[in-house]
Each structure stands twice: as structure tokens, then as C-alpha cells.
Design goal:
alpha/beta; eight-stranded parallel β-barrel; globular
Length: 333
């Protein structure tokens, strides 16, 4: 029996691609989908940007049939704006609408959006109810344990959000104050899952960067699935590797240099096609370090990849990488 979000079957132990700004765009989602991600989320989209028709926000609504199931994530602190944005999202026809209550960055959280709403739980519950009532889509939530060490009310919060109608919750095992520092605490995520009143899927997020850790946390904390964020940047194979390890108990060999170059090229080409030449090239740069992590003497190539603004020059650099490393050379030389 697969895990279900409303009536959407996302598999026995789903792996979710986390919403990450300037990362979880259509080109990258396509690659993660190919490598086994069961549910994809878009970058988070500003509700104010959507209702004002800001080009960058509207572009983030682009979703494609091959991505399904796909969720569109919105954030904001104004209830009316969030309701209007939810209606705009519904017209795009995603499978799921997700609300971001987890983003810790100052420009979002300090305006009472993202993780900022964790300082006002009654408002968080009210806003969620308004959005659930506004749309026919299944609504899910991504959040954190609390604002700080003294306000980790996630067990109660998750129950209240379920009671107003959300269909799944993803929990990052840190507080807003921690940002991305320290170790994610999954024990409270397990407490949410083990709450006898909870009957919606509970997904864990934070620090999963190897197949072994995914299985260890699956077994130890009993979550319904795992959301993967930073470990997937420049390494969409993480989904394939976790799936293989769950199924067989074997660690899959990392991709060879040919596959890394092929996928990096594909990513660059799709990025340029979707965002335009300049932005497509620049926003790819954060991925290259992980695409080729562990190859000895790689620094000159990496420098070229992250500084060149010329598409043809980047393609030539890929050719040079292929010529410089043999197929059987291990990635972690």
C-alpha cells in the first residue's frame, strides 16, 4: 500500500525533492524525476509577486506533464494575498499546493512569512485553514520544529494543521534560529509521526546525504518518506542511489565521468532554454561543484565552469573534462 497525499499515490517510501530557490526549477526537476524522485516541489513563490503578476514569480508557475506529481509552493504573511495566490496556483493545475512555513532567510522570515510565522501559531493555523478552504487542490505544508529552542511546538502544530485540512506535512529538523547549522533533530519529527491522532503522511527533511543515512533514518524515525534538499544540488543521482539501497541493501557505484558530463550538459542546455542565456549559465554554477566532486586536479576545470559566460566555451570545457578523466577513474580519487 503506497503512501497517499489525498488520492495521489506517491509510492511505498517516497523521496521528495525539496523546494529550493534558484535550484528546484523545471530543468533540475526533470533530472531528479528521471533519477527516481517521487514528488517534486517548485521553488517557493512569493504570493505578493504572483498577485502583482511579477515576471519572476509567474515564471515559477511553469510545470510540465512529465513532472507529475508536482507541487507548487507559495509563501507570504498576508492572508488575503495568500488566498489570491492560491487561486492563481490552482489555475495552473498542479497536483498539490504547498505552503512554505520553513524558509529561515531574513528577508522572508522577518516579514512574518516562511519560518517567521512560527512566532504566531494561531495565525499559521488560520492562514492554513483559509487556503485549504480556498482551493480544491490537496494542501501540504513544509515547516520547521519551531522558531527557537524554546518554541518547538511541532507535535501540537502538526495536529492542528491536520485538523484544518492539510493532507501531508514535511518537517525540517531544525528551528529557524539554527538556520542550517548544527545537526537536524529528527526525534521530534518521529514524535509527530507517532502521535496517535496523526493520520496524514509525515515526511522528514534535513541532513540526508547518503543512501545509508536515508535507510537508517527511515528505520529509526518511522517517517512516511524523506524530503531531500541540499544533497541533490548538482547530484540528482542521490534519488536513484537511495532507491537502490532500500531495494537491495547495496551501495550503487557513483556515476562515471561520461554520465556526469552528459547530465551536466543536459542541465545547462535546459537551463539556458528555460531562463535565457545569461541567467541560465549563471544559475547553473552552483551545481558544478557537486557534479564533479571528488575528482583530483579538477580545480582549473571548475574555475572555467563557474566563471565563463560563453555557452560554447562551457561545452568545450565539458569536452576537455571527458578527455582528461578515464571512465573507470573513481570520483573520489
Amino acid at each position: 500500500m503506497g503512501v497517499k497525499i489525498a488520492n495521489i499515490d506517491v509510492g511505498d517510501f517516497p523521496l521528495l525533492l525539496a523546494p529550493m530557490e534558484d535550484v528546484s526549477d523545471p530543468p533540475f526537476r526533470a533530472l531528479c524525476n528521471e533519477q527516481g524522485a517521487d514528488l517534486l516541489y517548485t521553488e517557493f513563490i512569493s504570493s505578493e509577486g504572483l498577485i502583482r503578476d511579477a515576471a519572476k514569480s509567474v515564471q515559477k508557475l511553469d510545470i510540465y506533464e512529465y513532472e507529475r506529481p508536482v507541487g507548487i509552493q507559495i509563501f507570504g504573511s498576508e492572508i488575503d494575498s495568500m488566498r489570491q495566490a492560491a487561486r492563481v496556483v490552482e489555475k495552473t493545475n498542479p497536483d498539490i499546493l504547498d505552503i512554505n512555513y520553513g524558509c529561515p532567510v531574513k528577508k522572508v522570515a522577518c516579514k512574518g512569512a516562511g519560518a517567521g510565522i512560527l512566532k504566531d501559531i494561531p495565525k499559521m493555523v488560520d492562514l492554513t485553514k483559509k487556503i485549504v478552504d480556498e482551493v480544491d487542490l490537496p494542501v501540504t505544508v513544509k515547516t520547521r520544529l519551531g522558531w527557537d529552542e524554546n518554541s518547538k511546538y511541532i507535535v501540537e502544530v502538526a495536529e492542528r494543521l491536520q485538523d484544518v485540512g492539510i493532507k501531508a506535512i514535511s518537517i525540517h529538523g531544525r528551528t529557524r534560529r539554527q538556520m542550517y547549522k548544527g545537526e537536524a533533530d529528527w526525534s521530534l519529527i518521529a514524535d509527530v509521526k507517532n502521535n496517535p491522532r496523526m493520520n496524514i503522511p509525515v515526511f522528514g527533511n534535513g541532513d540526508i546525504d547518503t543512501p545509508q543515512k536515508a535507510v537508517e533514518y527511515k528505520n529509526r524515525y518511522g517517517v512516511d518518506g524523506i524530503m531531500i534538499g541540499r544533497a541533490s544540488i548538482g547530484y540528482p543521482w542521490i534519488f536513484r542511489e537511495i532507491k537502490h539501497y532500500i531495494a537491495t541493501g547495496e551501495v550503487l557505484a557513483p556515476p562515471r565521468i561520461e554520465e556526469r558530463v552528459k547530465v551536466a550538459r543536459q542541465h545547462l542546455e535546459m537551463s539556458v532554454k528555460w531562463k535565457g542565456m545569461h541567467t541560465g549559465i549563471v544559475e547553473m554554477r552552483r551545481h558544478y561543484g557537486n557534479y564533479f566532486k571528488g575528482y583530483s586536479h579538477f580545480k582549473p576545470f571548475r574555475t572555467k565552469l563557474v566563471t565563463s559566460d560563453d555557452f560554447d566555451e562551457l561545452q568545450q570545457t565539458f569536452d576537455q573534462i571527458l578527455e582528461s578523466y578515464s571512465s573507470d577513474e573513481p570520483a573520489f580519487a
